[in-house]
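Hi support team,

I submitted a single chain yesterday and got back a structure, but I'm not sure I'm reading the token output correctly. Could someone confirm the output below corresponds to the sequence I sent? I've pasted both exactly as they appear in my results page.

Thanks,
R.
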Amino acid sequence: MRLVGPAIRAVRWLAATCLLGTAAHAQGLPAEVEAALVRAKLPLDAVSFLVVDAQGDRPARASHRAELAMNPASVMKLVSTYAALDLLGPAYSWRTPVFVDAPVRDGVLTGNLYLQGQGDPTLVAERLWLLMRRIRGLGIERIAGDIVLDRSAFALAPIDPGGFDGEPLRPYNAAPDALLLNYKSVVMTFVVDRPNNLARIHVNPPLAGVTIPPSVPLSGGDCGDYRGNLRADFSDPTRVRFAGSFPAACQERVWPIALPDPAGFAGRAVEGMWREVGGQLGGTVRDGRVPAGVTSAVLEFGSPTLAEVIRDINKYSNNVMAQQLFLSLSLPTRRPNGQDAVGGAPSAAAASFEASREVARVWWRERFGTLEPPLLDNGAGLSRGARVSALALARMLQVAWQSPWMPELMSSLPIAGVDGTMRRNRSRAAGSAHLKTGSLRDVVAIAGYVHANSGRRYVLVAMTNHANAYASRAAFDALLDWTIRDE
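Hi R., thanks for writing in. Yes, this is the structure output for that exact sequence:
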């Protein structure tokens, strides 16, 4: 990141102050939005709205309780991804180095092999397969010792995967990990085989020591709740059972599941994939650290660029990827040129949520002066404690609009009626709005850019915090339609 000088910081602070002033003179809610809220039986004090010109050269078109900090759910990912673009740059990538502590003789690594996680959020099954193939390409057919997983780049307290909403098997509740593999989830694909009256189960990634039936019987009826129809039992992390059947009408379905024992998932996935590519292992797969005397990696496996990664994070609202990205802000190795964090904040020995929140806080102060910073918690919005105001989000989006990283950020957002989490949106905004969505129990939010009929581009932020928050979606669509009608 290029550190800004005092003069540039002063100009940015002045711009922020001017835009805060324009919002203060904003109008209230459009009549059709208020009517939609009345129909939904939502009180006005449960919502916050702001529509303002992306360039910041006009008074806000609509504003309601914009200064109030609210829970934005996954809309908070906008802050994390824009901060990452600004601090790390769109070409940033994660590296997963591989070390050995002994020579390779006649295809046998005579010691241990070490995988050192550095927070890569993209090590899904396909890329794990590629990594194992790269290791085989070093001439290693058999590892006489152990495969050691070094996850020390993140310093994290234990996280209960069911602690947030009581759904520990849902992949969105997977905890971050310096060596995150396939989001700590196994993907089961059910494919109908009518001649044999069964559905075949394809499993990815293969997990060592875990037994999953190769097939289940078929049944009649419509597809409906096929997961419930399977009557799955995941209580034993080493053995998945199905007491039911798979409806033939489903044809093919994909079921990702975060099996119990998330701490053991990486080891099972690494061993399973190593054997899948034909590798042999004399020892075990275990956690540990790269020895101090082993300093040269035999290979480094690189991730896609940050610009590519944030598309998955924002378009599909991937929580664990967002947390990996947020934690990477405080990685000691995050700078390509080795420089410290923005504003001189020191790098810690390992990344943590606390350290990343401090990096983000310093960055926010550098960019936005006295404007109240968001409470980021884990950076993904999967939180009851996260808070940000519509005013702060809108100001950040205005700054992003005028920044070099605008194309990367905007292209990462779901397009209304086209893709991502906005694919099913049926408002008049189809194709004309790039919006991040967020939803939790009692929370619904959207924020992003809207292209109006006048040709102007607007920043739109809308949040509802209420027990009946889901009912506010019609009001959000009304606000989108009203914004687009700007002539």
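A quick pointer for reading it: The longest helix spans residues 6-24. Let us know if anything else looks off.

Best,
Support desk
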